[in-house]
Design goal:
The chain is mainly alpha-helical.
Length: 349
């Protein structure tokens, strides 16, 4: 069995956590980067090698990534899971939370079935560096097409959502509360305590959380309006992510936008769909990591998992804000440049 150093595990863990949620393919990067570095990295971190601990390692890191997603969306998952159990209890699917739960389940079935049957074959067959680079270029073209050929319905959804979000500014809530307290306390500034300002800040933070929760519910209401068939089609796009170089979140976002979702709603649906898939994939690999494939690298697994979880949490926080106003185009350009550059380098080295 090949060895894995702590440096290798740290780099791979961080890359996994960040690129799993960025639309640039985590598996593609984890196949390409060791090959580009070469030396012991290419030997130790070869996903296509028979009985490779590296394959189990990077998929096992999915558990940490999924945990980070669940932490970020925990309020949403409490609602959605509650909706699932209430639908079983009441034998009906009526509320937004109930519909959302069953949409996620339905949209997850295709990739779950294909992954169970063909996941290993896909990763070993297409996990070669040059093939990953080619698929990364294809991923860039998919992202570019997703932005270039946006439907009118999707563009209108963006505009409508921007108009809904603009009137309420959470930072302004905090600023107004603090300003009001400052004005009221001018005459007693020398003797005042900071407690009113702290209270105003806490009130502002509560307003921020309430605003985020309200927007999440509104987003789910828009998502369930697309129906189960559309959710199934969008979820099926995740199958392409079994190919190293194709981003799960990228293809799901593009599929969602082609079906009329705003960019932000498409990103949200993508992250929610990713959570059970990523978690299941990681859990299935845990026995490998605790068995013979994980011998001698348990410490590296722990370090990689911590960095993967931290990277994923910071990434989803950034991306949920990013997609409020920005596009997939920079990621498309990155995939095209990195993919083409990798093809050239791997071909001549």
């Amino acid at each position: 069995m090949s060895h894995m150093t702590y440096l290798e595990a740290s780099v791979v863990g961080l890359i996994q956590g960040v690129t799993e949620l960025f639309p640039v393919s985590s598996l593609g990067h984890n196949v390409l980067i060791p090959a580009l570095i070469g030396g012991s990295w290419a030997t130790d971190l070869n996903v296509a090698a028979p009985e490779s601990p590296y394959l189990a390692f990077i998929v096992g890191l999915h558990v940490a990534t999924a945990v980070a997603l669940m932490i970020y969306f925990w309020r949403d998952w409490v609602r959605i899971i509650g909706g699932f159990f209430s639908s079983i209890r009441d034998r009906e699917i009526a509320t937004v939370d109930q519909k959302m739960a069953w949409m996620i389940i339905l949209a997850t079935v295709p990739v779950g079935l294909v992954g169970l049957v063909f996941e290993h074959e896909f990763r070993v067959l297409f996990g070669k560096p040059i093939r990953a680079a080619i698929f990364l270029v294809i991923n860039g073209l998919i992202l570019y097409a997703g932005e270039r050929f946006r439907t009118r319905k999707s563009l209108a959804a963006d505009a409508e959502q921007a108009a809904e979000n603009e009137p309420v500014s959470a930072p302004a809530v905090v600023a107004d509360a603090v300003m009001a307290d400052s004005v009221a306390g001018d005459t007693r500034a020398a003797h005042s305590s900071p407690k009113p300002a702290v209270a105003a800040h806490a009130s502002g933070q509560r307003a921020v959380r309430q605003q985020e929760a309200s927007r999440a519910v509104q987003a789910d209401r828009r998502l369930v309006a697309i129906g189960y068939l559309q959710a199934l089609v969008i979820g099926s796009a995740q199958i392409l992510a079994l190919l190293a170089g194709i981003s799960r979140d990228g293809v799901v976002m593009v599929s969602g936008m082609f079906r009329g979702l705003s960019r932000q709603d498409a990103a949200r649906f993508s992250f929610l769909l990713s959570t059970p898939v990523i978690l299941a994939a990681g859990v299935l690999k845990v026995p490998d990591l605790t068995g013979h494939l994980g011998n001698g690298i348990h410490g590296q697994i722990l370090v990689g998992s911590i960095l993967s979880g931290v990277g994923a949490y910071l990434s989803v926080r950034f991306l949920m804000k990013y997609f409020q106003t920005r596009t997939l185009t920079p990621f498309a350009i990155y995939c095209l440049v990195f993919g083409l550059g990798s093809i050239v380098y791997l071909s001549v080295k």
